[in-house]
Design a protein that fits this description.
By secondary structure, the protein is an all-alpha fold. It contains 7 helices and 2 strands. The structure holds retinal.
Amino acid sequence: MGRNVEDPRAQLIFVATLMVPLVSISSYTGLVSGLTVGFLEMPAGHALAGVGTGPDGTVFTPWGRYLTWALSTPMILIALGLLAGSNVTKLFTAVAADIGMCITGLAAALTTSSYALRWVWYVISCAFFAVVLYILLAEWAEDAEIAGTAEIFNTLKILTVVLWLGYPIVWGLGAEGLAVIQSPAVTSWAYSGFDIIAKYLFAFLLLRWVASNEGTVANMASGLGSVSRSGAAPADD
Ligand code: RET
């Protein structure tokens, strides 16, 4: 799909988006090879403390997921930000908050010293997530109107926001959180279901659009930072 794409911004959208399945495949290889999974003893207070299905009542934790999200989700946001015509400040803020969300989510999953601290990490992660949601829903939605990419951006924005909200819900209800869903396997498969849509359907929809609308992307003011609320591009001065 990308062979004939020549505009640098459109190419960058392709590069960022294609990194997502590559990171994802590496992530799943890490999980199935046993390199990025472990059995953790849950702290007192956790529903599965001492009664998990792992050896000695431990709980199976595929922690590699949270680690590799720190690499894949910024790529999704870079692609979306470029599509929306984001300036570099918003792009940096979204990516930095997103990495913060994933790493503090990893900390939540790995904390075994205190049940309360697992939730403290969870709340910190949600605070980072709120920043990402704000940029997606408010800032970039407005930028995309100016850039002329609002239609595809809005489709991808809804897909992203709805699916991404599923991840903290699964964490909260799953084996690592409240353990309403007690089985780590069911919890993990739920993430995999979201992953397929959030990564693969997302990538397909975005790249198909960019390949056939390269002109719109190319005509966006050059550089990262030209779309501003005042509407004044450097050439207008
Ligand atoms: C965690 C738990 C802590 C609170 C929050 C979370 C959010 C995770 C998200 C992950 C998105 C992953 C994607 C992966 C596929 O490419 C870490 C589950 C807020 C939003 C899109």
